[in-house]
Specification:
The protein has 15 helices and 17 strands. By secondary structure, it is α/β, with parallel strands linked by helices. The protein folds into two domains: 7-287, UDP-N-acetylmuramoyl-L-alanine:D-glutamate ligase (3-Layer(aba) Sandwich), CATH 3.40.1190; 295-423, Alpha-Beta Complex (Protein-Tyrosine Phosphatase, Chain A), CATH 3.90.190.20. The strands form three sheets. It has an eight-stranded mixed β-sheet with strand order 4-3-2-5-1-6-7-8, sandwiched between helices. Strands 12-13-17-14-15-16 form a six-stranded mixed β-sheet. The chain has a three-stranded antiparallel β-sheet with strand order 9-10-11. Strand 15 (355-358), helix 13 and strand 16 (384-387) form a beta-alpha-beta unit. Helix 3 crosses helix 10 (278-287) and helix 7 runs parallel beside helix 8. The protein is globular, with a radius of gyration of 21 Å.
């Protein structure tokens, strides 16, 4: 690969690298990881897998660690606006120049080894964290776990947030199969956390086989929400200690309480290596933020954006809408990838959305806007105001039709939110 001058030029080339395809496996990326001599990446590594809730859990882990005074680094995917969002050190996205240095180092080390876009990104994250000498590296699995390039690193705590069916082509079409793949991040004699209320048998078996101590939600830890005056608090009840009077996470949505419980459990499992006080937990939860998770862009009319794009995340979003009705119409701007089987989970919104607008995510895997319109009409029998292939143009046109008491909900794919958030950098 010829030397690129800018980050955008690099990314354009990486999109075509390795045939531009997903190619799970650790052999190639592992060889380059060894050549770069990146191990150990950090004194403490936390790896987070799961069908949903990964990004929120990573954000909470990071916010709490930083409040406790630790120099942390986070690797997440995908990004919403800028590629740099995938790498944060001390709570800030890494600058172009540092990423370019990482890419150059990887390019020199790989020789004739072909690497995919995500493998390059993973190695860049590990190189950046090593250079920054982070105390805690928090790594989000991209797809599955066992064969995801993040799994080249031996984790100190493995987290599985939730388990549901998604990416069937790679992970299987049952929860047991998906759980087995995600449990591939477990390591012998290291703790693992499962935040799913229904922990698959395959996950429990993997923990036994790996001699991993598995902590499960509502068996080893749980949360209890309480109303205190006009506000709400929660108690975290666990195997190490109880943490009472914690604030609800700043992130919106009742399911974020479960993500918070899972994040706390992960940090408590590392109590011998990380010193985190109840006040650190409270301060981190108060300040945590993450774009695209029930994010409010403006209040009048209300505009919400959410990355819900599969059955489990759609159910969480539908539940929130049911408990938080709008004062006027609810109009949904929706687009989905063709492999997400939206026809199976879109019916949850039948009585929660008054009108629909169809658009197309900016991806080769997307349903076209007309296909999305047909999906909505066939699945829901609901009116579609119009179909517009460009998400930003669809957003602007829809916004112009709203009254002040209406709500606009944008969801269905990261690739729908991306251009809208890029045009609206600062939430109202």
């Amino acid at each position: 690969m010829a030397k690129a001058v800018t980050l955008n030029q690099w990314l354009q080339r990486l999109e075509k690298a390795h045939g531009g395809k997903i190619d799970l496996g650790l052999e190639r990326v592992g060889r380059v990881y060894q050549r770069l001599q990146l191990a150990p990446v950090a004194p403490v590594v936390i790896t987070v897998a799961g069908t949903n809730g990964k990004g929120s859990t990573v954000a909470m882990l990071d916010a709490i660690c930083r409040q406790a005074g630790y120099h942390s680094g986070c690797f997440t995917s995908p990004h919403l606006i800028r590629y740099n969002e995938r790498f944060s050190v001390a709570g800030r996205p890494v600058a172009d120049e540092a990423i370019l240095e990482a890419f150059d180092a990887i390019e020199k080390a790989r020789g004739d080894i072909s690497l995919s876009y995500f493998e390059f990104s993973t190695l860049a994250a590990l190189w950046l964290f090593k250079q920054a000498a982070v105390d805690v590296a928090i790594l989000e699995v991209g797809l599955g776990g066992r064969l995801d390039s993040v799994n080249v690193v031996d984790t100190d705590c493995a987290v599985i947030t939730t388990v549901d069916i998604d990416h069937e082509h790679w992970l299987g079409n049952t929860r047991e199969a998906v759980g087995r793949e995600k449990a591939g991040i477990f390591r012998p004699d290291k703790p693992a956390i499962c935040g799913d209320l229904d922990c698959p048998l395959s996950v429990r078996r993997a923990a036994c086989q790996q001699r991993t101590r598995l902590f499960c939600r509502d068996r080893d830890f749980t949360v209890r929400q309480r109303e205190v005056g006009t506000s709400s608090e929660f108690d975290w009840l666990g195997w190490t200690r109880d943490l009472p009077d914690l604030p609800l996470p700043a992130l919106r949505g009742h399911w974020q309480l479960q993500n918070a419980a899972t994040a706390i459990a992960a940090l408590e499992s590392l109590a011998g290596r990380l010193d985190i006080s109840p006040s650190d937990y409270a301060a981190g939860l108060r300040t945590v933020s993450l774009a695209g998770r029930l994010q409010r862009l403006q209040s009048t009319p209300e505009v919400l954006v959410d990355v819900a794009h599969n059955a489990q995340s759609a159910a969480a979003l539908a539940s929130w809408l049911q408990h938080n009705p709008s004062g006027g119409r609810t109009v949904a701007l929706f687009g989905a990838l063709a492999d997400k089987h939206a026809e199976t989970w879109l019916p949850q919104f039948r009585f929660l959305v008054d009108q629909w607008v169809a658009t197309a995510p900016q991806s080769e895997r997307a349903l076209s806007a007309p296909e999305c319109q047909q999906l909505i009409e066939k699945t829901l029998g609901a009116p579609v105001l119009f179909a517009e292939k460009d998400p930003l143009r669809a957003y602007e046109k829809t916004l112009a039709t709203l009254d002040k008491n209406d709500r606009l909900l944008v969801f269905g794919s990261f690739f729908v939110l991306d251009p809208i958030l890029a045009a609206r950098q600062t939430p109202a």
